[in-house]
Amino acid sequence: MRPRALAFVAAGLVAFGSGIPAWAHHSFAASYDLTNPVEVHGVITQVLLRNPHSWFMLNVKDPSTGKMEEWAFEAGTPSGMIRNGYKKDVIKEGTEVTIKGFHARDASQKRGMLRELITTADGKTYGMFGPQESPAAK
To answer: CB–CB of 9/17 below 8 Å?
Structure first.
């Protein structure tokens, strides 16, 4: 009886564990309002190229209050970003950029999903979507 109970528990743990990756992954449309584009101009404070998604953090001056706000933009996977033209360390801390994206569904959050990242110094554009990825595929 004991080996049978142990096999049952082990099978249950395997079944539970195999469902975790699918449960953990989310749709961008669940977190971001794809009908609410946002454009912010600020200075990069941190770039995180790590799985599952990259992040760009920046300080943005609120036009109405003049106060600095910290924004965060979620982007694609590091390999997807590289495939679409972004290279590690291209945009460093202190770089002034304009980011076009989609605002978080929770309008109180200073967070978005990257659509384009444009460096103002040379006008080079880096985006989450390129020939290999498209918004419709997400």
So the answer is: no
